[in-house]
Amino acid sequence: PDIDTASSKLGKKTWPLSKLIEIFLGHRGIFHSLWLIILIPGIAYLYLSRIYGIAIFIGYFSHVLMDGFTKRGVNFLNPFLELRLSGFIETGSLLEKMIFVVILLMDIFLVLKRLL
């Protein structure tokens, strides 16, 4: 989703495309909406494989959902309707990093549980 900002990790790798997207569509615009949460994994599901589609859906959806808990929030129905989710987390804060670590540890636990 963060291809829509030239300062993100992906944005830096895809510059100038990411800069054009940011200028014309804005950060946390359509790339942070329900439409692309369904479209992009759907394309991967159809043209790559089922597992890629599911993995991309989980990653994409969780990214947008977590952005929804930040103060800036997201509009899930952008650009057609307004369904805004915003929260209390400051982007880049210690709290955000702590939540990331907790989720990462839970993911590792679940993967190891599945393997063992």
Summarize the structure in words:
With 116 residues, the chain is mostly helical. The protein has helices spanning 9-13, 17-25, 34-47, 50-68, 94-115; strands spanning 74-75, 84-85. The chain is globular and about 50 Å long. The model has no long low-confidence stretch (mean pLDDT 91).
Order of helices and strands: HHHHEEH
Mean pLDDT: 91
Q: Characterize the biggest β-sheet.
A: 2 strands, antiparallel
Structural class: mainly alpha
Distance between the termini: 33 Å
Strand arrangement, major sheet: 1-2
- Structure annotation, total helices: 5
User: How many E-type strands?
Assistant: 2
Low-confidence stretches: none
Percent strand equals under 5%
**Rough shape?**
globular
Descriptive tags:
116 residues, mainly alpha, 5 helices, globular
Architecture blueprint of SSEs:
Blueprint: H1 9-13, H2 17-25, H3 34-47, H4 50-68, E1 74-75, E2 84-85, H5 94-115
Antiparallel strand pairs: 1-2
Helix pairs in contact: 3-4
Short description:
The chain is mainly α and 116 residues long.
